Amino acid sequence: xxxxxxxxxxxxxxxxxxxxxxxxxxxxxxxxxxxxxxxxxxxxxxxxxxxxxxxxxxxxxxxxxxxxxxxxxxxxxxxxxxxxxxxxxxxxxxxxxxxxxxxxxxxxxxxxxxxxxxxxxxxxxxxxxxxxxxxxxxxxxxxxxxxxxxxxxxxxxxxxxxxxxxxxxxxxxxxxxxxxxxxxxxxxxxxxxxxxxxxx
Length: 200
What we know:
Number of helices: 9
Largest sheet: 2 strands, antiparallel
Distance between the termini: 26 Å
Low-confidence stretches: none
Shape: globular
Number of strands: 2
Structural class: mainly alpha
Number of domains: 1
Radius of gyration: 18 Å
């Protein structure tokens, strides 16, 4: 039961984007298309799970005073793997995401889970935590990107989903930076309102 809770908490209860407001820089930058959102989400999930595993295994060997630099070295190693694999096998997504792939190293979601969870728990709970938080992050990116892509281009994953008249003159602000802030803010407000109603 505890493992299931560790896995599911990242979807809504402790969603990195909508509840904890972490990783907002890549969230705002890459959600102009669903394809980019999926690429970034899966890359971050891989790094999160692998770094959680290694940090959980090595927690007894890492001195407390240098734990953060050690965590960053572990995270950077997996980010390098992701960067090279995406460059080799998905060059279009790699080019589209650009600098935001290397910046996964300093993504506060990954470093935060390493510090708050993996360094204090066993391997299996750390895997479930990393997987749940990573998929929660990916889900948040996909939701924001879907709204932005549909409103801003009339498409979803490159397929036309809006009438031809709308596609000719879409709501362009949705795929621009201000649109990202507005849509994310509205979604965060909606989720917080729903949580308040459930708590009442």
